[in-house]
Amino acid sequence: MRDDIKINERAKTLEQKLIEKLETVYDPEIELDIYNLGLIYEINLDENGHCKVVMTFTDVACNCADTLPLDLVDTLKTIDGINSASVEVVWHPVWKLTRISRLGRIALGISPK
C-alpha cells in the first residue's frame, strides 16, 4: 500500500486485493486509476465487513464526482471480506500532482522524479 494512504489493521489483511481493485477504477478525465493518481487518502474496514474509503478529486469541478464513488463502492464489494462499502469525499488536504505515483507519472508522460 502507498505510504500516503492511511489504512487500518483489518483492511491491511486485504491490502493486495484492495490495490488490485483500486487500480481498476479510473478517473475518466485523466485516464489513470484512482490509486496511482493519489485520490485515496484512507481505507478502513470494520468488524462487520464495512469498508470506508476517504478520497478526493483533482478538482472540485470534476465531472465524475457523482459517479466515481458509486463505481468504487461496487468494486470494493466484489472483494471477499467486504460486505458493504461507502466513500467519503473530502477536499482537505487538497490533491496535488505530487500524489501521483511513480507508475502513474510514467503512464501520464510526467517525469517520474
Automatic annotation (TrEMBL):
Parts forming coiled coils: none
Protein's UniProt name: Metal-sulfur cluster assembly factor
A Pfam family recorded for this sequence: FeS_assembly_P
InterPro entries: Fe-S_Maturation_MIP18, FSCA_dom_sf, MIP18-like
Domain MIP18 family-like: 16-89
Transmembrane portions of the chain: none
